[in-house]
From TrEMBL:
Matching Pfam families: DUF5675
Organism lineage: Bacteria, Pseudomonadati, Bacteroidota, Chitinophagia, Chitinophagales
Chain ranges of the DUF5675 domain: 5-112
Protein name per the record: DUF5675 domain-containing protein
Length: 132
């Protein structure tokens, strides 16, 4: 399964369109690009493998693997990148401003179910991040 995240960068956050197998699935929010600095920057463009992850805080969510110089980059719900993210990616239903969106859980749940289903069927899931 191939996910494509096409980003637009702003000073206060990063917004994206997430495509699954070529179709728009949802939008995303992230921190601004600050040279991949830990906890304050979105991750670099590139292709990454997604795997399942569970924590008490986020329950079932996704782990973005292979990010150079970073660890524990996740895909989890959030509506405000500056307040709720530390380098992770949050799916949202609508974009309300740079790094901000609405109804993150409504976008997150079907994404996680779809990716978990693919992984349960021994399919690899790749996320490619590019600029619009």
């Amino acid at each position: 399964m191939q996910l494509i995240l096409q980003r637009t960068y702003y000073a206060n956050g990063t917004n994206g369109n997430l495509y699954v197998d070529g179709r728009l699935f949802c939008y995303t929010i992230e921190l601004p690009w600050l040279q991949n600095k830990t906890c304050v920057s979105c991750i670099p463009e590139g292709t990454y493998r997604l795997v399942k992850r569970f924590s008490d805080k986020f329950k079932s969510h996704l782990h973005v693997q292979g990010v150079k110089g970073r660890s524990l980059i996740l895909i989890h719900p959030a509506n405000n990148a500056l307040l709720q993210l530390q380098g992770c990616i949050a799916p949202v239903t609508t974009i309300t401003g740079p790094g901000c969106g609405n109804l993150s859980r409504a976008a997150f749940q079907p994404l996680v179910l779809m990716v978990y289903h693919a992984l349960d069927n021994n399919k690899s899931v790749l996320l490619t991040i590019t600029t619009i």
